[in-house]
From TrEMBL:
It comes from the Bacteria. Residues 313-349 are annotated as: Disordered. Residues 55-303 form the Radical SAM core domain. It comes from Streptomyces chengmaiensis. Keywords: Iron, Iron-sulfur, Metal-binding. InterPro entries: MJ0683-like, rSAM, rSAM_sf. NCBIfam families: rSAM_Rv2578c (NF038135). PROSITE patterns: RADICAL_SAM. This is Rv2578c family radical SAM protein.
Amino acid sequence: MRWNHLAENPTAAADPALFSASAVTTRTFDAPEFRGITFHEIRARSILNRVPGASQMPFEWTVNPYRGCTHACVYCFARKTHGYLDLDTGLGFDTQIVVKINAPELLRRQLAAHGWQGAHVAMGTNVDCYQRAEGRYRLMPGIIEALRDRANPFSILTKGTLILRDLPLLRQAAEVTDVGISVSVGFTDCELWRTVEPGTPSPERRLDVVRAFADSGIGCGVLMAPVIPFLGDRPDQLRATVRAIASAGASSVTPLVLHLRPGAREWFMAWLARTHPHLVGRYERLYGDGAYAPRWYQRRITRQVHELAAEFGVGPAADRGGRRGARPQPTPVPTPAPESERGTQLTLL
Ligand code: SF4
């Protein structure tokens, strides 16, 4: 694996080494939820990552305590990044998880460094920081505490219901700084969910998270992603999804059509050929050689979702009793790779 190479040649890597070459511990756990999963514990050298091309993003810095994701979404954009560690980008991405065990202490140190000016920090824009591993490693409480103690603004995008564990801490942080929480729910179709996002909590459980944050006064946006062509884009499906998002009390809904960047594309198309072979040709025509659906298609979905959002009253104007107070925060979106994690590509939560 790439880190073995670094261990042998600690100064040879042209890229900024992600972690101390001497510190990789590999573990497995017997618990049913971790069966078949291998964890590679590392001590990272840096945890605050600058986003390349940040001018197009609403934030410039990210924190990613994990690489790989047991949520195992077949369309996940981050798959390719595993290849840079010489790990498999298919099943390996779902089952070989890199854990930066020193993330909280490192972040506390970096936030206190001379020169850090308190910029917004986005989390969950690469892989999900509330994936199952977080239940065991508990890195996020220390990370949130470090941000809270410096009153440093931050946002989290997740599919993980585990974030509810940290609600009290997030409430404390929201008292001293801007905190943006967003949950990703691209559709509410349970059959589609089981096959395309097999390791995630159900859309319904994710909407419970939205509800809890709305009730807490922090507020929660929904990244309606991905909208999956020919499988999750029928008008009745969009309608059911936006209606459920509205009824959960979301502060905003931001639609995003499926991207098929290299790495994700191969894995997704192989899945499509197995499960919906009749759609392969339609996908090839819609995406061509590119990673994105055509603009006309993206615009159509965006317009439909915005019309439904207006109809169902998603947003701060919606009357949900005590939920009006939350200040709307921008919804984090998938971001380009941080420079210090070269090889990490866009991911879609
Ligand atoms: S899309 Fe997000 S939640 Fe799904 S596997 Fe990728 S990082 Fe995890």
